[in-house]
Amino acid sequence: MPLDILTIGEALVEVMRTDIDQPLNQPGPFVGPYPSGAPFIFAVQAARLGLKTAAIGSVGADAFGECLLNQLEADGVVTDGVKRLADQTTGIAFVAYRADGSRDFVFSLGAGGHITDDMLQPALFAGARCFHIMGSTLSMSEAVLSVCHKALEMALNAGALISFDPNLRPELLPPENARIAFAPFIAAADIFLPTETELLQLSGADAVGDAVADLLAERPDRIIALTRGADGCSVFTADGRMDVAGYAVREVDPTGAGDCFDAAFISGILEGMPIREAAQLANACGAIAVSAKGPMAGAKSRASVERFMHDNPYQG
Ligand code: ATP
Ligand code: MG
Predict the structure, then answer these.
(1) Ligand sitting nearest the alpha carbon of 229
(2) I need a labelling partner for 149 at 20 to 30 A (CA). Which of 8, 249, 272, 316 fits?
(3) How far is the CA of 50 from the centre of ligand 2 (A)?
(4) Which tens digits make up the pLDDT trace of 95-119?
(5) Across-strand partners of 94?
(6) What pLDDT, in 10s, does the model give residues 227-258?
(7) Is the CB of 9 under 6 A from ligand 1?
(8) 302, 304, 296, 305: which is closest to 71 by C-alpha?
(9) Residue of the nearest CA to atom 11 in ligand 1?
């Protein structure tokens, strides 16, 4: 059966400090490994919402790779596109949280950064309804960027909707380079999911309205969902702007909010929901994601997201 969603990118496990304000430059306790990597958090959230989802990426032939694969299998994510590399270790992110909510990382991308042409199996693309890709993946290396160009072409040929989240990581790729690297993916995007900062940095515009007007002039049928953290999101289409308020929750771990939001928004669109409903579902998944500690702990099943929405009536 063809996929609802196909994604691609960096597979990781995350190992995190047990308490806030424990720096990474001194010995101290960690917990983990937790399965992670933005595209894989996205895939798990999509699968937990009930979509047939696959992710393309690489792990090492080691215990951390098994940790991620076991989680994907438990959630029913199709793992045919996940390669186990005998000569690489699985990617690891060490994460420390500061009291102000910011995070420090030490990354070892390892196998996670090895995405090659041979991993683009035509069977995964055939009939896929949506191909979702992130700027963090495009930022890993020139080699991965070129594989992603090929993946985009295959997805377009397969007739998939293209969804793009810039997930800008200035430490991997400065915004001025990202602007060039991401341009073909933004141009192809039916669904574009930036934050305000990302939209302005990537477009070079001074105001959101100008950036959005250009994007909609190029492609009037596209949807731009601008995420606004605790404030929810604003969705722009040729019909105008819709502000959709966020859910009030206590933020304990921002990791994965954007990925869970993306999965839910796309899921709503693929299911034919009106845009406001898709945006509310996405805000709910983003809010739930930030209220749980651990990269995939906040990606909930359809039933628990619906319970959350029922218990927290929309205030917008
Ligand atoms: P990420 O840190 O995962 O890259 P992002 O910067 O791409 O996230 P945000 O705008 O921070 O994106 O969050 C995505 C969505 O998650 C928001 O649009 C909102 O729906 C939800 N969200 C994020 N933070 C909060 C919060 N503190 N309270 C409620 N909802 C939130
Ligand atoms: Mg984002």
Answers:
(1) 1
(2) 272
(3) 22
(4) 999 988 788 999 999 999 999 999 9
(5) 15, 106
(6) 999 999 999 999 999 999 999 999 988 889 99
(7) no
(8) 296
(9) 229
